[in-house]
User: What shape does this take?
Amino acid sequence: MILLGLVFLDGGLYADSGLQVVYIALQAYGWWVWLYGGEGRDRLPVRRTRGTEWAALITAGAAGTALLTWALSTWTDSTVPFWDALTTAISLMAIYGQSRKLLESWWLWITADLVYIPLYFSKDLKLTSALYVIFLTLCVFGLLAWRRDFQSGRIAGPAPAAA
Assistant: This one.
């Protein structure tokens, strides 16, 4: 993540660069929630995103995109402030959804990757663009696996006891 942050910084993708730092904290939080944050403090099951959650996510994503676009346009030399802001906002929405095991979070990742791939390619970050093709493929596999878990009603067993 640190290396990607530096690549993005060098490519003028400032929001994506900062996002790499945010990922570290959010991934630790998501891991904890998956293991201990479900109902009854069990492992969290995969579930669908509720209407109120969608409303909040879309509102936050739109506001985040607008604010980041303005900040990047005002305070940086970014040549793609809207696209940098949009992908960052969608990624934050997706990682929130993943921390809650919301099935639709995979669709957010897929959407972000479909924007990231040509964006990175256009910024001459061709290897990073290829990496995101791999990430896109992994997202499809993740979506299929979570959909199977959701459809089967399978809930992970209890969290392991602390040593």
